[in-house]
Amino acid sequence: MARTHAEWKQLAAELKIEGRAFINGAYTASADGRTFECINPANGQKLADIAWAGEADVEAAVRAARAAFDSGKWSDLAPLARGKILKRFAALIREHGDELALLETLDVGKPIGDTTSVDVPGAAYCVEWFAEAIDKIGGEVAPVDPKLVGLVTREAIGVVAAVVPWNFPILMASWKFGPALAAGNAVIVKPSEKSPLTAIRIAQLAKEAGIPDGIFQVLPGAGDVGKALSLHMDIDCLAFTGSTGVGKLIAGYAAQSNLKRVWLELGGKSPNIVLEDCADIAKAARTAAGGIFYNMGEMCTAGSRVLVHRKVKEQFLAEFKKAADGWYPGEPLDPATSMGAIVDKIQYDKVLSYIDKGVSEGASLICGGKATHTDKGLFIEPTALDCQRADMTTCKEEIFGPVLSVITFDDVEEAIRIANDTEYGLAAAVWTANVTTAHQVSRRLRAGTVWVNCYDEGGDMNFPFGGFKQSGNGRDKSLHALEKYTELKSTLIKL
């Protein structure tokens, strides 16, 4: 049965929050005693003091991970046996779903309706999916000289560091540790300092499920922890989701150290193209509103640029403004809320500065544009800007907030040119009634995911997720994710 607003508030008041690191099977304070404050962005209140891992903690975690991996107590388990343990882990995530959803909502300001229906169930589903998949993946017998037997096998890569973002903390973490654990690796999760709570909590659930000590660890802290992991000579692979700027730093650290595998899921400035022959302008407008305002726009795939044909622009904007009215921010613990708080003051100020920049460069406000304050909370209205040029700042840079840039075009060629005129290539969409146009435009859009007559669909694990250009490399989700966390080995046996 769904909980009421009052019930969620009561649960929040009773919640006990764990803030320590999880190293080698146990919660522990940082070696030097450093902590940082975890703040609820909806009201400015402190939730907990969180351990800030230092160099000694990184060394302890990596040492434990290496020993656990080399022991074979996880990597040498039959895939079916690992799968059974991971299924128990997924079941425990579901069993503690309300607690985890509450932690996520308090930590980053996400609406409780989203964390209970998307974030936490999605994480459990991801772990379960890879648990089911891992014993279905075989190797190859290569066609070689009959005097030889040639085998091609996959082996766990070793110690994996997963540096994960704050916008979907538990879900994005699961996209890393799910396949990495399934493949037999030891994993160290470094959550964002803006969102450490669910990663810390599920570490204990992993242990309860039967994942051996040292195989799943959590090191909270700031960028210095991620840097230490990136530079560490005994980390074999680092998977990162976050900004393109930080991704470049991490790639550099890997090059400076041991050339560890680095997989990067980075920023986006995704174009959502509404062509003249769009069959349902109202639906396109409603979907565009969801594509930018869901999760307060704090999404790498956010449809932050709508490219609309001049002939349907007026109709589209009228429908869009009606749709935007349904996305007004409110109390995150209220199940009726569709938009919550911006994650912290830094991001809040950044988003507002982009709105000001857009207006100063000549964009006109279609809706929103203001901050809303409730009990020191960090809330911003759903905002859309009618941009006169496609090269305006708000059209080019990733804002990571509820701010849409609307760009007008006159023909398909112009739309494709504008859409691809970006350093990013994570996602895109096109709205058209013509199936030929849909195929032709999709092929020419330089993006890892293209939606046709929808946006942000395909939430199941069967679709690989990642980007072109400076949106990163490698793919999360799907069987392709296992490629990131395994090494190919060729074995030739002479008969």
List keywords for this structure.
495 residues, alpha/beta, Aldehyde Dehydrogenase, Chain A, domain 1, Aldehyde Dehydrogenase, Chain A, domain 2, 2 domains, 7-stranded mixed beta sheet, 5-stranded parallel beta sheet, 15 helices, 21 strands, 39% helix, globular
Which class best fits the helix and strand makeup?
Answer: alpha/beta
Helix content: 25-40%
Which regions are unreliable across 5 or more consecutive residues at pLDDT < 50? Answer: none
The biggest beta sheet reads:
7 strands, mixed
Shape: globular
Sheet with most strands: strand arrangement: 14-17-18-13-12-19-20
Tell me the domain tally: 2
Explain how this protein is built.
This protein has 495 residues and is of the alpha/beta class. It has two domains: 15-266, Aldehyde Dehydrogenase, Chain A, domain 1 (3-Layer(aba) Sandwich); 271-459, Aldehyde Dehydrogenase, Chain A, domain 2 (3-Layer(aba) Sandwich). It is 39% helix and 20% strand. It contains 15 helices and 21 strands. The strands form six sheets. Strands 14-17-18-13-12-19-20 form a seven-stranded mixed β-sheet, sandwiched between helices. The protein has a five-stranded parallel β-sheet with strand order 9-8-7-10-11, with helices on both faces. Strands 5-6-21 form a three-stranded antiparallel β-sheet, with no helix packed on it. Strand 5 (140-142) and strand 6 form a beta hairpin. Helix 4 crosses helix 5 (112-133). The longest helix has 22 residues, at 112-133. The mean pLDDT is 97.
